[in-house]
Amino acid sequence: MNVKDFFGGLFFIAIAGYFTYVLVDSMSKLFIDNTTTWQYFVAFFRVALIIFLFNLGLSLMKRFFVGGTTKNGNAR
User: What is the pTM of this model?
Assistant: First the structure.
């Protein structure tokens, strides 16, 4: 149970929340007539980055609450 894991998890979840806010805030600019393929690619990349950061934050927080032990009982 490392406190750094907990605060690291909160940090990454906060970054994902900020990126979500920025994405939703500029969503009205995305669906206009002269939207390029590059803008759609950037929006897709932002969503993938948000999902990755949120998962990373949850993984760090889980490691804090579980205790960070790795159990490999099926290894022979």
Answer: 0.75
Whole-number mean pLDDT of the chain?
84
Encode pLDDT of 25-64 as tens digits: 888 877 777 878 888 888 899 999 999 999 999 998 988 8
Backbone angles phi, psi at 30, to 5 degrees: -80, -35
Q: How many CB atoms lie within 10 A of CB 9?
A: 21
